[in-house]
Structure formats: structure tokens, C-alpha cells
Amino acid sequence: MGGAKYAAEFELPDMAHAVLVQSTIAAGKILGFDLIAAKAMPGVLVIITPDNAEKLHNLKPAQQKVTYPLLQNADIKFNGQHVAVVVADTFERATAAAAAVRVHYRATKAVTTMDQAFSESVTPKNFSNGRAKPDSQIGETSPILPSGTLRVEQIYTTPIEHHNPMEPHATIAHWSGEQLTVWTATQGISGAQKALSSLFGLKPQNVTVICPYVGGGFGSKGNTWPPAVLAAMATRQVNRPVKLVVTREQMFTSNGYRPRTVQRIKLAANPDGRLLSVRHDVKTQTSMPEVGEFAEPSALITRMLYSAPSIGTSHRLVQVNHGLPTYMRGPGESSGAFAIESAMDEMAAALKIDPIDFRLRNYAERDPTADLPFASKALRECYAQGAAAFGWEKRNPAPRSMRDGHMLVGMGMATSSYPTNRMPASASVHLTADGSALVRSGTQDIGTGTYTTLAQVAADELGLPLGKVRTQLGDSRLPPAPVSGGSMTSASVVPAVQAAAQGVKAQLFALAISHGGFQWQSVSPDVLTLIDSAVDGPAGRIGIGQLFTLAKIKQLNATAGAQPAPDANDYSKHAFGAQFVEVRVDPDLGIVRVSRWVGAFDCGRVLNAKTARSQLIGGIIYGMGMALFEETRIDRNTGRITNANISDYLVAVNADVPEIETIIVDSIDPISNPLGTKGIGELPMVGAAPAIANAVYHATGTRIRDLPIRIEQLLA
Amino acid sequence: MSLPDTTRRTILGTVATLAALPTVSRADISEPDAVSGGLGLQNVTLQVNGQQFRVTLEPRVSLLDVLRETIGLTGTKKGCDHGACGACTVHVDGRRIVSCLTLAARCKSKKIVTIEGLSNGGDLHPVQAAFLHHDGFQCGYCTPGQIMSAVALIQEGHASSADEIREWMSGNICRCGAYPNIVAAVQDASGNVTEGG
Ligand code: FES
Ligand code: FES
């Protein structure tokens, strides 16, 4: 039976349901549980607490893959930490019993917001997983600046934001024999397999992770978060399949968030609009070290975005009693671009230079901090094509100068950039006599169209109609592939699929030469092609089916891996873009509406124009949410999130979104990967929020440096 | 265990096979607990997509959970369980409702239509076809709810302009941000959908 099934939708006989119980204090210790009432409730099978939880192996709190404490001790490090799991025969019964669990705590003093410990920041230990250093400096740290230098020095902040994919995190775990099978909503099945096998002390081959479809992740499904581990723990305890679906409220404390950032930018420029020095110092929150560490790398973008003789950046962490932050769409770049691209707009205004012109005067021809050439860069074309489509020349540069009736009209722009990533990946291709192919790879489709893209690539390579190619993803028994994050799925997996398809093709050509008959024997494989399900060459055409009959075989298989080229490190690899926004602001009410959008992107070669456009639009809308709505609020006294639901945590809805025009500028990156793609998932989110803030400044004359932009800031 | 071999696009395409589900009688809950906790079990017959389902349930069970967990119609999605996201939208007696805030036991003798019951035989409903054509989804999780809302608002006559569609579709959150494509799909379909279609 077909049907797109998400993790929680697999049917297993005798399924039990698990519900999480969360801590109601932010710091302290569990003194004990009162479980009498809960245990007596109908249908309850077991209540797992730190007192009876399975002891896990290989606990390494420093690593980001798994967060703690996973019921391993009685310490409380944040409000909303999982303290118990109730397993019952139905969801309703487990929910009712979870509400009846009584926990006794001894509370200690907690740091519930970043500002309470702002001066006690620490240097990240595992910044960007070791791929970059927390601090950077080129040129003089404090260059002597000539008189007449213009300066902008401001602090920009972004709040805690939650990914809120529409599909809640969900896991079905089934322990039977020595085999753990887990259906879980994840952006990385191989990572989940590794984490679970390591924690439970099992061999990796004894853990199968299945995830054919993910209902959105945006970074929140990249790690193996506690609920998946606790579901696995529960099935091992009750010996029947267990389903654990995190509630929307629990999503705010169970699977990461974008941490609050406080970013100081210092720009200095000469009156001609050349940057003399750039500083970007970031403080961002992380959890208590026992839970893990994550640093939002907001200043990475400043290291490569513009050229200046002096560029310095730093990242520091403030430890707060909250859960572990994590990657969220455009991690680092989204929050960092808000700061640097707002400051660039402020400087352009101070210089009385057009914002695009100011950026062009400081255009980076090579990556200034890495001191490397860009693998490709078509940002100039993005500015030019975006501005033309938007009608930027109609913009009167004076703030508060444009009106449509009563409404103030503002036009703003900002630059986008996101690194082009790639990791090793593998795939297999399987061809049968009827001319149909099966592509398999242990990657996952998180809504980006991976199924279609991979089928298309194999169909092209093998000369088959698209309808003859099927794709299987989302199973850890398939050839391994990396996490679907960092906009790198296509760049990593497509070359592997291509290589596997080429392997099948080479075998087909060899068969044609060996079994095609006399006139084929002297043909070189180099002159053969695969068209319309047949091998085509100077000696004629042989259909795939015919060839299989001649060679007396039923199928051909090839498995292949692909990895980044060794010389890829000699280049700085990024996608780019330019965002153009028009807003309308009600001068009496301070209400901001986005009325028009043009985004022009240099995202390399595009494999599927339809799904690419959808991703670009989706990223821009995510950025609208960041600019205008999204903020997770914390109660200072209890450390509890006060808007942990999807109606008080505002995201963009249909009525917030105008028509969006996307332009993909011609650009192919020959270096980052053989396809020439540059990644598309995160890029359109970057620069969206500062473009709106800059448009709001242009409309109103009020500069907003703290997201989200609120009515009260505009009325103040 | 066999691997699924479908693409996400079959969210829209496989509904016809589901519509052929037999009438089931399932009690997920063992009888001895029937009266404990003051939550006596009830036998309820639900009419879903034109078929009768006899289910034994506690009165506190939502229509959404009965559809997904008991009857096995998982096309209707749970995004929030609080009436805030629209993912669970179904039609009850021709009206669109959020099934997470509807008690199943109150739906006796009402006509329930879910995404699985929308298509007619093997043919996609025009709104489903329009969503496919305009790429009105990415991860697909909000999509059944979007489509159920779209079908209803077209029938209610709230699809006369893009702005009206934006407003009336705003109860269905799409975190992937497929909104412009959703609006295009609804506009397109509104020309093709007739009353009861
Ligand atoms: S699940 Fe019912 S509205 Fe969200
Ligand atoms: S398509 Fe993913 S939430 Fe709408």
C-alpha cells in the first residue's frame, strides 16, 4: 500500500503510547516522585523516571549530537526538561496519567535570561564543529582612522526563535529480539542510527532508522533529540512498540531553537564610501554545559561579505538555564545578516550613498578573511537584476518621503549569502529488464523534493523516462548519506547517484559490446549513448530488455560514493543573493505590511526550477516571520516559555505574504561540486529580515535594531 | 519490512485507494477498564467518507485521534492539537472544522469527509490537482488541511480574489511557506469546482 507516511503514521500491532513529563523549575534537583495516583490510572504500563531509567552508554555531553540528561540523573538544568515518560495503552490515557505525575523538587537559583549573566560569557569550545574559529582578525585590530571617517556603532539583537515545523517530532520505536527499529522524524537517519546504537550499546546494524518523509525540519530535526531516545528506552522496557509524539508545547523545550543574539557592529568608512574597518562581536546564549553546547555563528558572514583592510569578529557564549540551542534555517547567517546588513544600511544613509552603490564600492572580489578566491560569485548580477525587476530607481532616498495615500511606503534591500556545503554520500542504482530503475540512498526528503531530483538525475543519466525511475530514501539500511542540513543534500547526494548510474551505464555498454553481436565487438564504449531505454551507437540500437535477454541477466546494480574534490578547499564557496522589499506602514497604528518582494539569487545550477522557486519563496517567508513576528518569550521568574504554542508564537500566515518574484541569475559553480549547484534551502532566508528593517527605516525614519519589529517600537 | 516506494506527491494521489477501506470494528481499549476513571467506553458509529466505522472509545477522544489512531486514516494531520494550525481540517456535515477540537463521540450520525474521501474514484479532486500543478506544498504536512479548507472556501464563495483567498486561508499555517503557490492553486481550482464537487 502506498501513501506518504510520516514517522507517527506507521501501524504496528499492540502499539503503546508514551507521553513526556517536563520539569516545572529551571534549576535544581528532583527530590522524588509521587506516582501512586498516576500508576493506578487505567491503561498505564510503566512510568520511567531517573529512578528506573535504563542506564545509557557513551554519554558525552560536549558533543552536539545528543542532549542530556535523558533521565540519567536527578539534576534539573532547564524548565521543560524531560523528567519522566508515561507509557499507556492509549494516547489519552498516557496523557491523563502524565498530568497526574507529581514531582518534588529542590529549586536552586537559575539564570533564566541572557542579560542576567551577560558579563560572564565564555569562549565556545566546539565552535562550528571545529570548522571555524570563534574569533578572526585581518589587518589592524584598531586601525588609526583619518579625520573625516564616518562611523556606525550599534547593537542589534535577535530573539529566541523556534523552528516549529508543522509535523511535531515523533518516534515509533520497536525493540524485538536484538533489533531496535525506529521510525522517527529526522533530517539525518545515519546520525540517528549512530546516536541510538551508541547510547544503547548496540551494534549499528542492530538499529534501523526509517524516515521516508519529514514534515519540515528547518534544523530542528538534525540532532537526535531526547524524545527519540526516550521512545527507544520505553519500547525496551515494555516490550511492545511505543509511539511518542511530542506536543506542540513540548516542541519548545525538546528539540532546540535559535538562541538569542546580541551583536555589536562597528563600521568605519571614508567619505567616498570605502570601508576602513569592520568589527562584529557576537554574544549568544547556550545551555548549561551539562546539557551541551551550541554557538550561533552569526559573524561568519561578516568575514567574507565585504572587502575592508581591517575585519575582526568574535563569538562568546552566555550560559542560561534553557535547553540546547541548535541550527535553525540559515544558522548564523540569518541572525548575523540582520546585524551587518542593517549596519551597512545605516552607513549608506550616513554617507548619503545609495545602499546598492555602497555595497558595490566594497564588493569583495575574493574572500577577505580566508584570503581565497570565490569558487563563483555572481552577486553583482543579483543586485542589477533584482534592482531592475523591483524598480529600485523609483526610490526616493529620503526616509519618510514616499506615500501611497495615508500609508508610508518604504523600500529596502539587503545582501544574502550562505556557504556551499558538501559531504561524502553514497547511492545505488538498480536497473531491471523492463527498463525501470530504482535509486536508493540513505538520505531523506525534508520537503525539498529530493525524491524527484534524484529520480530525474538517474533518468537523465540512463536515458529513461522519469516515470520509469523510482527512488527509495529514508532507511538506514540504504547506502549512507549525510544529514539534510546546511543546504547540501543535492550537492552531496546527486553526484553519488550520478556515479552509480554511470556505473550501470558502463556495464550496459560492456554488455552491448560483448553480446550485441559481431558488428558491436570493435565499438569503443566512448561513442555509445543511452537514449530512450536503448544503447545507441555506430553499430545500431539495442534495447535494454533485449540486451538483458542476450546476456541472460535479470538486473544490473551499481553502488557508488562521491566526495568533495580535494582542491575544493582552495576556494571560498558561497551562494549569494539580493533581496528587495517594499513595505507599507500605517503612520498612526505602526502596522507594517510587506507589499512587494523581489529576490535575485546566485545559487548555482538549478536542478528543478519548480521546487527551487518554492524553496526560495519559503525561505523568504521564513525571513518575514523572523523580521515581523517570531519571538519566544521567557518568564524571568520561572524560566518558562510563556508562548509555547503556535498561536502566541506568531509565524507568517497566508495573509501576511504578498506576491514574491524570484530571479535565479545565471551562474554555475564548477568547483564546489560537479553539478555546479550551490545550495538553496537557507540562502533566501538570509538577508530577508534586514531588508524589511531597512525598508521600515526608509518608510518611517525609525531604525529598528531589535527583532521582531513591533508596533510599539514604531509608535515610540 | 518493505521500503516505501512512493513520492511525496502521492499524498495527493493515493487517496483513492484509501477510500476503499472496509468497515472496521476496532476496540483499542480492553473492556475491563471500561468504567474506571469515570470514563466509560462508548460504542460509536462514525460515517467517514461514506463508510461506517464502529469504534469503541472514551468520550474524551478527539475526532482527529480517532481518525488517525483508530481508523487509520492518517491523511488528516496533527500539527498543534489546539485548534491553531489547521492541519487537522475535515468536513463535518459539509462544514470545515478542526478535528483536534472536536470530540469524536459528538460526531455520531454526522457525515465526515477527510482528505482520503475527497477524490472521486481514481481522479484527483480539482483542488488536489491544482495543488500539484502549482507546487502548493513542500513537506506536505499542512497540505491535507490546506486542501480541505480550500475546497470549503471555494464552495462558500470566498475565493473571488487573491486577497480574499489569502485572508480565508490564513487559518492554515504552512511553515514551509508555500502560500503564494497555494493562492495560485486555489484561484486556479475555483474556476473548476462546482457545488458539491
Ligand atoms: S491540529 Fe488541529 S488545528 Fe492544529
Ligand atoms: S508544506 Fe510544509 S508546512 Fe506546508
Automatic annotation (TrEMBL), chain A:
Coiled coil: none annotated. It holds the Pfam family Ald_Xan_dh_C. Residues 1-109 form the Aldehyde oxidase/xanthine dehydrogenase a/b hammerhead domain. GO terms for molecular function: iron ion binding; oxidoreductase activity. Residues 122-144 are annotated as: Disordered. It comes from the Bacteria. Keywords: Molybdenum, Oxidoreductase. The keyword Iron does not apply. PANTHER family: ALDEHYDE OXIDASE 1-RELATED, XANTHINE DEHYDROGENASE. This is Xanthine dehydrogenase family protein molybdopterin-binding subunit. The lineage of its organism: Bacteria, Pseudomonadati, Pseudomonadota, Alphaproteobacteria, Acetobacterales.
Automatic annotation (TrEMBL), chain B:
It comes from the Bacteria. Residues 42-118 form the 2Fe-2S ferredoxin-type domain. CDD domains: fer2. One of its GO terms (molecular function) is 2 iron, 2 sulfur cluster binding. Keywords: 2Fe-2S, Iron, Iron-sulfur, Metal-binding, Oxidoreductase. The keyword Chaperone does not apply. The keyword Translocase does not apply. InterPro entries: 2Fe-2S-bd, 2Fe-2S-bd_dom_sf, 2Fe-2S_ferredoxin-like_sf, 2Fe-2S_ferredoxin-type, 2Fe2S_fd_BS, Aldehyde_Oxdr_Iron-Sulfur, Beta-grasp_dom_sf. PANTHER family: OXIDOREDUCTASE WITH IRON-SULFUR SUBUNIT, OXIDOREDUCTASE, IRON-SULPHUR BINDING SUBUNIT-RELATED-RELATED. This is (2Fe-2S)-binding protein.
